[in-house]
Structures are given as structure tokens and as C-alpha cells.
Amino acid sequence: MTSTLDLVFAVTQQKHNIDAVVKIRSYAMFFKALVFGAIAACAAAPVMADWNALSALQRDGALVSASAIDLDRHTVIGRLNAGTRLTPASLTKLITAAAALEVWPTDKMFQTQLLAAGEIHDGVLHGDLILRGAGDPSLDDHSLWQLAAQLKGYDISSISGRLIVSLSPFGKIVCGAKDRCDALRHSDSAYNAPIASLGVDFGNWCLIVRPTQAGSPAQIRGCAVNHLPVEVLGSVKSVAAGMRSTLKVERDTDGGSDRLRVGGDIPLGSEQRVYRSMSDSSRGVGISAPGSIVVTEEQPPASAQLLAQTDGLTLREQLGRMLRFSNNYIADVLTMDLAASMTNSPPHDLPAATQVLTQFMSRVQRAAPPAEGGLPLLLSGSGLTIENRLSASDLTELLDYEYRATGHFPAFYGSLTVPRDAPFEFMRLGSDAWLDRVALKTGTLNEPVSVCGIAGYLRKRDGGWIAFAVIVNGSADRNQISHEAAMRAARSDLEDILARD
User: Fold this and answer.
1) 440: nearest Cα among 21, 3, 68, 56
2) Rounded to whole angstroms, how far apart are CA atoms 168 and 132?
3) Vertex 60 angle, CA 56 and 63, to 5°
4) H/E/C letters for each residue in 398-416?
5) What percent of the chain shows pLDDT beyond 70?
6) CB-CB contact of 497 with 49 (8 Å)
């Protein structure tokens, strides 16, 4: 027979067994939670950049500054000499674009006008006809034709006064950068066009070279008009399809007059459009009447009557062209426009105007952790001046600032280039992640040392954002680092980040 004591012992023992099982299960659940918590923590841990390829390039003599930050987690992914300021070349244009978007709406347009200072009677303007610039970087031949068509509606057959060209909001600017100063005499490219408040076609002459039949001279004409207002010397020979093109176009200037010299061969079926910088961007206006033209920096009289007006491209479109094609002319004209708008006085040169960009960067850095070495050095908005100095940290701080500027971030981001759709072949290389999950700006120079830089945004697989910047300069030990080698190293390290996140 079981005693009461035995029953009490049995119940107590069963309770102990149950408690033990519960405790075991609790410990198991706790351990399981720890394991899954550790796994989740590992999954959520921020990706770190190793910069292996860029570090190897640095060991070979390159100067490198690199930075990547997670914009959603507010964490640093990786830094390599991130505070070291190097020559950024056209990466400077990112600052110009951001500053412009902070001052003007994305649909801002610059308006070029024709004004009459006098009365119109019986087809005669009794006074002066004034062409007033607005600092429109996108002014082109088509815009001038629009002004002429509107003017025709007034049936003006003659002008008793002068044609006045008003260079507002800023006047003629000295060349400044070495490339632009050299281009006053000779140019075989388009990037070094001089800046002006009333310049046409981005300060470039544009030729269309069209082959005719093998062995015969090619047809040469202006892009907007059959005959350019400058002399074209030489000829280009049409050769059989598939042969190598040796087309050469140069611009020389002597005695204040531009001349285009052409030569070489062009294969059948390969019509080419060629741009060469003018010595003076206002030459493209195409008007010449010695003794009757006055160029002034003064504003037209308040009593002048508006006869015709043409609107330039919207700011959004201007920035797209500036960043996608790295247009130096747009960048530096916009810099002058910004200075004129913000200081209410015409800037006297580009370095003075660029102070508005330095001031903008001071506001960017106030929104970020304290910068290393104070403010960056900026003497142009295009980056054509080799004295500009930016670090990878400067650029990622700027990209972070723009990412959080929700009002105009879409316009800023939309102006960048996605590698798969890039206009230049060297950018259309790499993995699918690189080609599709990156939007960037490039910057390159060759002298006095090589410069290759990229900066922009990476999209993570979960839709998040990473800002990055890489600048590679040649050094005293190794003057030239090929752009291919620099791009390959930067792309390799950034593809490593994309593969992890």
C-alpha cells in the first residue's frame, strides 16, 4: 500500500521532472534565440570596403582618396585616405549642380532678349537695337533664328542707331585656366571653349563632314547654317567604306579672326559632326558690322521696349548635359550666373565667382561631421583648373547632403550616368550590378599629372543607398596612371561592395 508520504514524494518528484523539462526547453529556446540573433546581427552588420585594388594602385605610386558611406544606416563602409585632397577634375561639377539646385528651381530658364531703345515708325527703328544676354549656357543658333523671326514681325527694315550687345549679367571673362588661354590661339577640341554671358553653341564651331563618293572631296557645312561666319581652309577626301578615318579639324586664330583648317580622309557612310572651340564665344552670334556694333557690360535702359525673347533649356536639362557629357562651358557659365545672382554684382573673374561654391560647401560641411583640413579649394565650377582640390570625404558629404534634400534630389540624381547607358564606351564595362545599380559622374585630366575620379550612388539589393567617391592622381614618383587602370581598380573595389550588399 502506498503511504501518504510516498504520494507526496512522487508528486514532488514529478514536479521536479516537469520543472527540469521546462528549464531545459527554456535554455534551448534561449540558445536558439542567441543563435538566430547572432545570425541576424551578422546579416545586419554593415558591409565594409577593403579597397584592395586601389591600395595596390597606391603601392604602385598613385595618390588615392576613397570613401563609401551607407546613407540609410549613417555608417562608414570604408575609407582610404578619405580626407586627402587631390585634383578632382570634372567631379567639381557635382558641387556646381548641387549649388545651382539650391538657388534656382529645376524649371529655371535663362532668357535672351532683343530690345528697342527708340520708336518704330514706317519700318525704321529710330534708336538702338539691343541684344541682351542672360548668361544662358544653352544659347544656340536656333535661339538666334527664333529672335530673328520674332523681330521680322515688326517689319523693321532699318535701324537708325547702333546694334548694342549687352553682356549682362556678367561681362567678358579672362581665360583663367591654361587650357582656355592656349585655346585663344589654337584648338583641336571642344572642351576648352572660353566662357561668356552671350556665347553661342557652348562656345564651339560645329561642322558636319559628309562623304560624297570615293576619291571626291567630302561636303563640309555648318551644323545650323550652310556657311559658317568663319573661313574653312583645306578639304577632306571621301574614301571607301570600312577604311580608317583620318579626319582632322583644327581652329587657328590670327588678328582676331577664327579659321578652321580641315584635312584627312572620311569613309563612306560615316558622316561626322565635329566641334571646335571658338576663341571668343560671342563670335557665334554671327553678326558683324564694323562701326555699328557696341559691346557693353551696362544694363539696357529701363525704357527699352521688348521686341523678342527666347528661353534657354531648363536648369534640369542644363545639368543633365553638364554632368552626362561633362560640359565645361555650362559648368563655368552657371558658376558665373550663380555669383551674379547671389552677390547682386557682376563677378570680375571665374575664381572670384567660384567663391559661391566654396560658401555652399561650408553649408554642406556644417550638416556633416567636422571636415579634415577646412574648406576645399575651388577656382572653377568645371574642374578645368588643375588647382581645384577635393577629397573623397568632401564628395561623399556632398552626396549625402543632396540625398537628404528631397526637393531637388530627383533632378540631381537624374543628371548622373548609369554605366549601362553611358555615352562613353569605357564606362560600359563591368558586372551587371555595376552596369545597373550605379549612377555616377566621372572626372579625368592628363596634365600635369593624370587624374581619374568617379563619384555617385550605389543601390543596395534591398533598395537602400550608398554614396561613394574615388579620386586617383598621378604622383611625383609616377606621373601618369592610365585612366583604364584607375577605373578598373575603382570598379573592382566598388563591385566588391555591391556583391556584399
Assistant:
1) 68
2) 7
3) 85
4) HHHHHHCCCCCHHHHHHCC
5) 87
6) yes
CA distances from 209 to 19, 243, 271, 432 (A): 93, 16, 6, 37
What angle in degrees, to the nearest 10, is found between the helix axes of 392-403 and 93-103?
30
Torsion of CA 22, 26, 29, 35, to 10 degrees: -140
Taking only the tens place, the pLDDT of each residue in 263-310 is: 999 999 999 999 999 998 766 665 544 446 788 888 899 999 999 999
Phi first, then psi: what are they for 468, rounded to 5°? -140, 160
> How much is the pLDDT for 145?
87
Taking Cα atoms as reference points, which of 101, 104, 136, 97 lies closest to residue 319?
A: 97
Strands 204-210 and 272-277: antiparallel
Collapsing DSSP states into helix, strand and coil, what is residue 450? coil
pLDDT of residue 389: 97
Q: Could you give phi then psi for residue 179, rounded to 5 degrees?
A: -60, -40
Whole-angstrom Cα distance, residue 2 to residue 47? 68
Top mean-pLDDT range of 8-17, 123-132, 369-378, 387-396: 387-396
d(CA 490, CA 496): 10
pTM of the model: 0.86
How many residues in the chain?
501
